[in-house]
Amino acid sequence: MRVLKKIAILTGVFVVFVLLMNFVVMPWYVRHNTLVQVPDVRGLSFEDAKKKLDEAGLEGLQGDIRYDPAKSIGTVIDQLPPPGQVVKDSRRIYLIVSGGEQLYDVPNLVGRSLREAKFMLSQRNLGAQEVEYKPSVQYPAGTVLAQLEQPGMKVKKGTLVGLIISAGMSEGDIRVPDLTGKNIEEAKRILLQFKLSLGKISYQPSQLVPLNSVIDQYPKANTMAKENQKIDLFVNREQKKKIIIEGEEDGIKEKEVPMDDLDDNIEGKPKQKEDKPKQEDKPKQKEDQPKPKDKDRKEDRKDDRKSNPQKEKDKKDNQKSTDGGTNF
């Protein structure tokens, strides 16, 4: 009984092996070595082309995308290997699909010169169309102010992008610059750049800006002005007042002093420290008086003689009696 069971098992295994070889292994082996002619799938959609290749025992894969305005998107334009070529079964066939008409992104051209804008558009197979010229304070003449096709928009090849170009600043369209805080020389340069002229300069003290800097202006900043219009400036400068110094040997002298150094009195005299009285204000001492000279003394004696002749005679008699000695 045991022998019969073993024979039955071996017979069943052999039958399974024969069936696998006949229906699985051999068909695969024979089919793998079969040569197949590649069908023509051009002009079909990608899905239809892939299905046709599967039926022929081939595998269809998507290859490159080629832009073709004559073919709709997803249509097979070409295939590799080409149609009619004999290949092995299960060979991969690469399909080149149409991307339709190619679209290009519109660049941002605002602030670019017209020449630069045309060059950027030509690099993208696009063109420029000068729609309108408008005066502008912000952009100089020949600069793109705006564009009709917005940046990032996708357009077809050869599309003309509409441009609005600046005509520059016209008369009365000059925006007055802000000059406050600028020194005079810098303010002059800025006015020259904006085609404006320097008007009247008025000086007044201020602690808001440094010396010789603009405190205010007229017309005001950001207002519109005409070409060569004069702009008046108010400039910070330390004010000085002339005072008269008396008592100088060379005569009356004038001196300029800052306004801050002046008293608040009406006469406008300069502030003085409480100094000690000067020596010249003290009464003159006797020793400072000049001594009389000898000549002056002789003159005084002559005058005395003329005025008192009797006194002079008595003096001479007294002198003679003294010279002659004592008389007994």
Structural features, described:
With 328 residues, the chain is α+β, with helices and mostly antiparallel strands. Among the domains are: 35-98, Trypsin Inhibitor V, Chain A, CATH 3.30.10; 103-166, Trypsin Inhibitor V, Chain A (2-Layer Sandwich); 174-236, Trypsin Inhibitor V, Chain A; 240-272, no CATH class. The protein contains six helices and 17 strands. The strands form seven sheets. It has a three-stranded mixed β-sheet with strand order 2-5-3, with helices on one face. It has a three-stranded mixed β-sheet with strand order 7-10-8, covered by helices on one side. A hairpin with a 7-residue loop joins strand 16 and strand 17 (253-258). Mean pLDDT is 77; it is low at 261-290 and 320-328.
What is the strand tally?
Answer: 17
Question: How many helical stretches?
Answer: 6
Largest β sheet strand count, sense and barrel closure: 3 strands, mixed
Counting copies of identical and different chains, the oligomeric state is single chain
Provide the structure class.
alpha+beta
CATH architecture of one domain, please?
2-Layer Sandwich
Order of SSEs:
HEHEEEEEHEEEEEHEEEEEEHH
Determine the strand fraction and express it as a percent band. Answer: 25-35%
Low-confidence stretches: 261-290, 320-328
- Reported by name, the CATH topology of one domain is Trypsin Inhibitor V, Chain A
Main attributes of the structure:
alpha+beta, elongated, Trypsin Inhibitor V, Chain A, disordered C terminus, 328 residues
Write the layout of secondary structure elements.
Layout: H1 2-32, E1 35-37, H2 46-55, E2 59-66, E3 76-80, E4 86-88, E5 92-98, E6 103-105, H3 114-123, E7 127-134, E8 144-147, E9 154-156, E10 160-166, E11 174-175, H4 184-193, E12 197-204, E13 214-218, E14 224-225, E15 230-236, E16 240-245, E17 253-258, H5 294-307, H6 309-323
